[in-house]
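Holo model, 3-hydroxy-3-methylglutaryl-coenzyme A. Inputs:
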Amino acid sequence: ALPKHVTIKEVGPRDGLQNESDMIRTEDKIDWINLLSQTGLSYIEITSFVHPKWISQLADAIEVAKGIEREKDITYAALVPNKKGLERALEANVDEISVFMSASESHNRKNINKSIEETYPVLEEVVLGAKKQQKSVRGYVSTAFGCPYEGDIDVKDVIQVSKTLFDMGIDELSIGDTIGVANPLQVQHFLTEFREHLPEQKVALHFHDTRGTALANCLVAMELGFDTFDSALGGLGGCPYAKGASGNLATDDLFYMLNGMGIETNIDREKLLQAASFIQSKMKKSLSSHQMQILNQG
Ligand code: HMG
Ligand code: MG
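Output:
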């Protein structure tokens, strides 16, 4: 049976913006996040405390995190790659810390400059440090359904990385289709095997829509009982260290499908589209989601 309620975790201010070459002003990011806070979303990934040279768009992470108005029932999360990032994230007092690594050796190296083995102790230090400050921790495993450098990924490799992250003490795992290659049958086979080894109620799915399969992948995951999905408003997004990793699943498209199916999300459609129109007005392009294309046609 399909879930009655789905939690949408908005990653637009982080995953959505990190691939944008035109700089968005800090105050516009803050205003956008404040609008997102009024939509009914319960979780917003607001920025990332990675090295500013690696992701210059998010170099203003501390200012953004300190500048937004926090709603008390919303979790404001941020990406953290290492101890230095954790120090910055704690200074900015985000609610949740997200560590990240890849299931494939080559994407891990391209993205965070380390082998998988070298990454574990770095992330463990972050997880323990965050826990010490009573922060919840999310762990991402990227390239779970395919790697831009290595192609197919064995689900056993994803399970291995995921288990190690759970052993460190993460509260939730997000499984990433970083370059948007997954298809529904693959997702079905993957999740069926995956949940034999890991706590499925602590797993979110993070689909990119590069090839148009993200909503279909969500449907298959929901049929298996998964009820937490990451998405970015307007379909913004991508990982600059994975060629072709454009476009997260669009929050507005996911919302449209779930709402039509009678699945509760607590999101207000008008406010969601207002927030999308706002960030679109600050960019030199129109947003690519289906809902925004319809809206833009008037
Ligand atoms: P590195 O160059 O190997 O870092 O980068 P290092 O540890 O050797 O340090 C070098 C210098 O950088 C030092 O300064 C550090 O202090 C400084 P120095 O002593 O030379 O003056 N430094 C920092 N400064 C500020 N903040 C920091 C930080 N860390 C070191 N956090 C590093 C390693 C991990 C930092 C780098 O590779 C990096 O920032 N990578 C991030 C890449 C990224 O953000 N990719 C996109 C996010 S992942 C994604 O999109 C996938 C996801 O959406 C899920 C999916 O779709 O699958 C999550
Ligand atoms: Mg992503």
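Strands lie at 7-10, 43-48, 75-79, 96-102, 136-142, 172-177, 203-207, 228-231. DSSP finds twelve helices and eight strands in the chain.
Archived with the compound record.
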